[in-house]
Every structure is written in C-alpha cells, then in structure tokens.
Amino acid sequence: MIVYKIGGNVINNPATLHEALDYVAAQVEPAILVHGGGRRANQLITEMGRQPVMVDGRRVTDHATLEIVTMVYAGSINKDIVAQLQARGSNAIGLSGADGNAILARKRPVGAIDYGFAGDVLGVNAPLLDGLLRLGLRPVLCPITHDAHGQLLNTNADTIANEVAKAMAALEHDVSLQYCFELPGVLRDINDHDSVIRTLNPDSYAAYREEGVISAGMIPKLDNAFAAIAAGVREVVIGSLSALRAGEGTRIHGA
Ligand SMILES: Nc1ncnc2c1ncn2[C@@H]1O[C@H](COP(=O)(O)OP(=O)(O)O)[C@@H](O)[C@H]1O
Ligand SMILES: CC(=O)N[C@@H](CCC(=O)OP(=O)(O)O)C(=O)O
Q1: How far is CA 138 from the centre of its chain?
Q2: I need a surface site. Which of 46, 69, 221, 251 has the fewest CB within 10 A?
Q3: Is CATH 3.40.1160.10 what the domain over 2-252 is classified as, yes or no?
Q4: DSSP assignment of 183-212, as one string?
Q5: 216 in contact with ligand 1, CB cutoff 6 A
Q6: Confidence class of residue 233 from pLDDT cuts 50, 70 and 90?
Q7: Per residue in 25-67, pLDDT tens?
Q8: Closest among 119, 87, 250 to 178, alpha carbons compared
Q9: How far is the CA of 142 from the centre of ligand 1 (A)?
Q10: How far apart are CA 62 and CA 115, in angstroms?
C-alpha cells in the first residue's frame, strides 16, 4: 500500500494539487493520503495581522493559531481534497486525528522552546484505517490530532505520514511512503534542481545537516523518513510528483 503525503506548496498551486490528486485517484492499490497546508496557514495568519513562527520546520502554535490551523487543515483543505477525489471517482473519507480516534497525541512538553499546542503522536488507530481501506474507502488525513481530553493539537504533517506508515507496516502491510513536495528531491544546492541527492543514509544526512545543506522543513521530513525505514516501512521516497512518478527523487536507506 501507499502512504502519500502532499505538502503546502503542492496544495497551494491548483495545477500541482490537481495533478497529485489525479495520481492518488489512479492508484489501484490501497492508499492513504496525508496532507499539510502550512503555506495556506501562513497566508491566513499573516492576513490576520499575526506573524507565523516556525522553529526547525515546526509551528509554534498558540491558541489563536490553533484555531486558524484547525479551520484550514481539518476544514477547508481536507474537505476540498475529499470533494476533488470524489469528483475523480475515488471514495475518499476525510479525518482529523480526533475522528474515530485516528491519531492520539500529547502536547509537546515545554523544553528550550515552547511549541504551544503542538502535538507529538502517541498512537495511530491502524485497525480503523485498515477497516476503511477494506471498505474501499480512501482515508484523507489532516495534521490535526487530539489528546483524548478534548484538546485538539497541531502535528507536523510529515510526522503524521511517518506514524501512519509505521502503524500500517506493523499490521503487516507492505508500505511505500512517498513525500510529494515542490522540488525534485533533497538538493545539494537548493538553487540547482539538477543537484538531487539520489540516496541518503543516516551518516550522509548528519553530514549534510552539519554543512547546512539541509534545513527548515526538510529536517522534520528527513527525521520522519529515517524513523519510518527503521520501523519496517519498505521504502521512503521524497520528490516532486513527476520525480516520484518516474521512480526518481531521493531514496532513504537505513543504517
Ligand atoms: N537540501 C534541501 N533540499 C530540498 N529542500 C530543502 C533543502 N533544505 C531545506 N529545504 C526546504 O525544505 C522545504 C520542504 O519542506 P516543507 O516546506 O516542510 O515541505 P512540504 O511542502 O512538504 O510541507 C523546501 O521547500 C525547501 O525550502
Ligand atoms: C506542528 C506543525 O508544524 N504543524 C504543521 C502542520 C501542517 C504541515 O505540516 O504542513 P506542510 O506539510 O504543508 O508543511 C504546521 O502548522 O505547519
């Protein structure tokens, strides 16, 4: 099965979003779609006269920000994607982590940084997702989770994809985790689209990070990619839609 994650820049461009949804709708094997929407959230937060705050690719989520991201991720983006998949004959069902207790999380403990209402995943309800797949439904997960005490939390979408992939692998699924974003892969030089790093292992990742080649949103994406491979996900690939379609992009290898 495929766990397919689309990021905020792909979602914000109608052409790339439609292309990605064509690809997901055309899959014959079971598929779960995880979406982000960070770029749209940034636009709305800015329009409301606030400043988006990201640290190492993760959003510092105060109360007002949580309300905005819940409306954006669990509301407009999730429902729009579900409607677009329905229009392609794909019977999608949109879920936040609170729906069917799909994803349980806890508020990230305050350390050097207080991330506010950011959630770290405690568990994925893999039997629920498996049951939906068996009904022929295509789950569409947004990055809003809950803590089982009534608190919604904001969780990085790359983390959701990794946790879902790991949980489905633990149910004996053969899982391919595909991170679709706007660039052809992890790049050696962010300005040179021909500089795709074809494979990454933990040592080369640490070296590139040290050099500053890998930064911002790529850090949680890669941390999650390595965690997925270590936990039994068969393959993790990162790239643009066309790179992923062509079997290109950056492939993650374990230790
Ligand atoms: N070496 C790198 N190669 C590619 N992207 C990188 C690299 N280092 C940092 N990035 C940044 O990471 C971003 C992708 O992370 P993010 O915005 O969280 O992705 P998504 O669109 O999936 O949400 C890219 O847009 C790019 O700006
Ligand atoms: C805690 C945290 O960082 N949450 C993310 C969730 C959305 C996301 O990950 O979206 P992309 O995939 O488009 O980056 C955020 O609010 O930006």
Answers
A1: 16
A2: 46
A3: yes
A4: SSSSBSSTT-TT-B--EE-HHHHHHHHHHT
A5: yes
A6: very high
A7: 999 999 999 999 999 999 999 999 999 999 988 999 999 999 9
A8: 250
A9: 19
A10: 8
Q: Residues enclosing ligand 2, CB less than 6 A?
A: 7-8, 36-39, 41, 58-59, 61, 69, 118, 143, 154-157, 217
Question: Does the C-beta of 76 come closer than 6 Å to ligand 1?
Answer: no
The ranges assigned to domains in the chain are 2-252
Among 4, 181, 191, which is best to mutate for testing ligand 1, by the most ligand atoms less than 8 A from CB?
Answer: 181
Residues 149-158 have pLDDT tens digits of 999 999 999 9
Q: pLDDT, tens digit, for every residue of 69-115? A: 999 999 999 999 999 999 999 999 999 999 999 999 999 999 999 99
Among protein residues, the one with the nearest Cα to ligand 1's atom 22 is 7
Nearest by Cα to 1 from 221, 234, 225: 234
